[in-house]
Amino acid sequence: MIKYxxxxxxxxxxxxASIFFGFSCLMWFIVGTGIGSFNAxxxxxxxxxxxxYALQFGHMRQVHVHTVIFGWIVGxxxxxxxxxxxxxxxxxxxxxKLGVWNCMAWNVGLMLALSTLWFGMTSGREYSDxxxxxxxxxxxxMVTPLFINIFMSILxxxxxxxxxTNWFFAGSFFMLIIVxxxxxxxxxxxxxxxxxxxxxxxxxxxxxxLLITPVAAAITYYIIPKVTGNxxxxxxxxxxxxxxxxxxxxxxxxxxxxxxxLPEWLKSFASVEGVLILVPAVAYxxxxxxxxxxxxxxxxxxIEIKYTITGVLLAIPLNMQGGFQQTxxxxxxxxxxxxxxxxxxxxxxxxxxxxxxxxxxxxMQTMLRRKLYSLSxxxxxxxxxxIGFSLYWVSMTIAGLIQGAGKIYxxxxxxxxxxxxxxxxxxxxxxxxxFLGNIVWLYNMYMTVKKGEKLEHGVLPHEVAYVR
Amino acid sequence: MSKFLxxxxxxxxxxxxxTMSDDRKVQEAQYIWEHESLGGIAExxxxxxxxxxxxxxLTFITAIAWxxxxxxxxxxxxxxxxxxxxMHSAPVQQVMNDKTLTTSARDEKAMKMIVGALADSDSPxxxxxxxxxxxxxxxxxxxxxxxxxxxxxxxxxxxxxIGNDVALANFEGNWKTDANGNxxxxxxxxxxxxxxxxxxxxxxxxxxxxxxxxCFLVIITVKRLPPITWKPDHSIAH
Lengths: 468, 238
Fold this sequence. Notes:
The complex is a heterodimer.
Chain A: H1 2-5, H2 16-44, H3 57-88, H4 96-118, H5 132-155, H6 164-183, H7 185-188, H8 193-228, H9 235-249, H10 264-275, H11 278-291, H12 298-301, H13 303-325, H14 328-334, H15 338-368, H16 375-408, H17 413-451
Helix pairs in contact in A: 2-3, 2-4, 2-15, 2-17, 3-4, 3-5, 3-8, 3-15, 4-5, 5-6, 6-8, 8-9, 8-13, 8-15, 9-11, 11-13, 13-15, 15-16, 16-17
Chain B: H1 23-35, H2 50-67, H3 78-87, H4 90-96, H5 103-119, H6 126-131, H7 136-151, E1 159-162, E2 165-168, H8 202-222
Helix pairs in contact in B: 3-5, 3-7, 4-5
């Protein structure tokens, strides 16, 4: 990496920045899920590893959350965007050098951010836990260079049209800068009380709604038509999806605070908009699944399609839950329980991760010009991820319902802890499967670099035989 | 129409669902669509399938219907005014001063008497009382606040019970008027709002306008595209 940081732009091979981001996000995914498994073990077995203050659950939970969000998910988005954006514009990345520097700044910043968090330096606000200098670093040294590279690549495209995926990439990373700066305003300007609460959840909601969900969708808009060879079912439904994300996903932040003394009109508005999140969801799922017409056999045979479609199918329960769990009737029951933890993992480990894994598998082979080292290992990874995630999601959903019942019927806290104990063990097992699967994935990608069969010029990974 | 509303330029009132672009623009769009490859990806020009359109309409109706009846469910002080009146009645006071019972047994018995007495009388708050049952301790905590408001002749429906507090509700309802329909004004000279949830609820009206504004703008956007009857030929660029 150091070599390319100080090379001339023309001496850096195309795809270099994407490959660096690809490997770094894989490493962070292993670290993040490893910490997740460790944390889950502490909940399943409360006497496990209690002697180090720095490794207590209260420190490690935030480190896990931000490692997977900024290390894995947004890192994988960067890896994907840096090869997909130029490909869709029939051009080169605006600056590979900026991309390589961006990757270095990303990793240095993340190490700094996670270390300070680990040492207990935190704003104390969920999802915007980093202290303000770190927030500014993320906005200006991590996200802004990425946005500039994406935006300039789109401006320098050699096509007149801009494909749906690139609307989302450019729009989402621009909005992420705004979300970061506005959402952390309580820390910059010492806002307290309801203002702080609202801004905190405006930030948290929009990191999911204006970044993670739309960019994961953007990736699937690329992978499905590219790998199946089918045209996207509908350009105009893409418009409906994009604009309804902007309009309906950016407004319901108050639905995270339904029991707070926020103005009632704001909560009413947020709750209706919360259900209307189903508009982009329906448009999106319909567009992607209809694009698969005549190619459904690839769902079994092709590893990228398998990951992508699994992610898209998980978007259905994700949005059904998201739309309705925020209404007062259901929120009253599930708020503050493991149900919400299960829902968050359905979004990040389910829908989003499966889409990103497809993009990383596909992009790494394309950029490295090498065929995947082992399809069997990729399938093993897929099943470890799917079964591990499913165990996690189902067990935490059940635990959440138990906690909800306990909360409503005022069951003593210790009785609830005992009742949900088996589900905490299953959660740990599921999370550990995901962690182990990721180690296998890293090995497979490393071996692809070292021993993967070279792709002939003009051949794409999905065009070589995947069926054993 | 373009002079006044350029966005609506091209709208054919006789065919409102047709494309809003003129023939030249449609031909240009079709040429680019068929001759340009976006990284090897092509796009079709299909409309939303009709069942999905139905699903989206159902989503909007559900969004309103599912959430509408559930707002304003925070208990207001008026629900408990009768509880306090009955709490001071002789039979209930007799139970509350019965030294042969434990404190909790006295409270429980007295509250049962109050609830029983209220069950026999018609009240607009019957449903809300079932939704928000309280204990004698809760009643003792809210009693001074409610009595103070009664002494001020305040409208108890405008006050919410939030934890241990009796607080002015944060609804923004209709402007208050006197019997002649003139607006009432507060000490600062400004018009005063009712703190009751109005049937139209401001949040819902905002949502309805917002939704139809969105539909209007998306329709204008997609109606710039060639008509849905046109199917692009992808063999030209791919």
